[in-house]
Amino acid sequence: xxxxxxxxxxxxxxxxxxxxxxxxxxxxxxxxxxxxxxxxxxxxxxxxxxxxxxxxxxxxxxxxxxxxxxxxxxxxxxxxxxxxxxxxxxxxxxxxxxxxxxxxxxxxxxxxxxxxxxxxxxxxxxxxxxxxxxxxxxxxxxxxxxxxxxxxxxxxxxxxxxxxxxxxxxxx
Amino acid sequence: xxxxxxxxxxxxxxxxxxxxxxxxxxxxxxxxxxxxxxxxxxxxxxxxxxxxxxxxxxxxxxxxxxxxxxxxxxxxxxxxxxxxxxxxxxxxxxxxxxxxxxxxxxxxxxxxxxxxxxxxxxxxxxxxxxxxxxxxxxxxxxxxxxxxxxxxxxxxxxxxxxxxxxxxxxxx
DNA sequence: GCTACAAGTTAACCTTGGCTAAAATACTGT
DNA sequence: ACAGTATTTTAGCCAAGGTTAACTTGTAGC
Lengths: 172, 172
What we know:
Two copies of one chain form a homodimer. By secondary structure, chain A is mainly alpha-helical. Helix content of chain A is 67%, strand content 2%. Chain A has one domain (36-170): Winged helix-like DNA-binding domain superfamily/Winged helix DNA-binding domain (Arc Repressor Mutant, subunit A, Orthogonal Bundle). The first copy, chain A, contains eight helices and two strands; from the N terminus they run αααααββααα. In chain A, α4 (72-79) crosses α5 (83-95). The N and C termini of chain A lie far apart (44 Å). At the A-B interface, α3, α4, α6, α7 and α8 of A face α3, α4, α6, α7 and α8 of B.
């Protein structure tokens, strides 16, 4: 079954009397020019390519920090994936120069990997904190942040950070 | 080259003196229990499965509305992808009962497809308007919305909608 | 009504990210 | 030290989403 089939959204929101969309937003309904549109999709496809890599590297960094080592069993458990899959992906991470390890041994990050992990971690944290500052429930915020983090631009991140700061200050 | 390599983010944000994260957020640093963590990733993988399908139906609906017909050339151009790819994906959409068409003819949405498109379109609009209400530049907002929309939960969507409403009212 | 070009399809290939099952290596306890 | 268990890797499978190149179908113009 496809997700939307049990996602009772339409009835709840269509033709809502609360639609106060200002006119300046109505233009959202027009199609952008083809080439710009294509670039939008390209950006998403592009993000997808690095998503998984970032997730791995981020997780490895977390494991190294919190448990002292990053074993593929743990990664498999945390990612909810088989160890074989982890092994294959790690091979790819190595070939990209993000991870290093000797066969059958625990994993480490290269400098490049650490840079990526740090960036990823920050982005993740900013998005998560932003969602919580907005008032999203912790559990939901974590799930949304995991999915959203790879698609949030630098510009938006900065705005989120500013918002969180102001909001955090307000109820502190 | 990987995207993060030209994304000068770390220097700008690490150890910022503006880190006023309240203590209640510090726990974000701890790893969640393995099984919960796994569910987060599973949710993301799940979203990925329907993402492309949603993008297609949404685009087809837009084309039907704005140009009267949805031809695969246009889809290919707007998605920035070859026609062969569109053809293959459309075959999949048909087998899922989302799209209908006779060979070599223009595409239509089934009821199921329309339902999905409507939901997708609303979600997209909410996220896009939210980002703009936050103060994100239009162009950036479009790109971010395209990527984020599939990862935003019902709960967060409602909060975004509320925020947009309040914010929209404020400067109207 | 035929010819030429545009649009759609099919075939053959690639990479990624899953899986299971089996083999190789490392670790642990007696 | 070595037997048994746990971990990691490898092999072989699959589907999705891309590609190019070749083929089919549709449509316009003369």
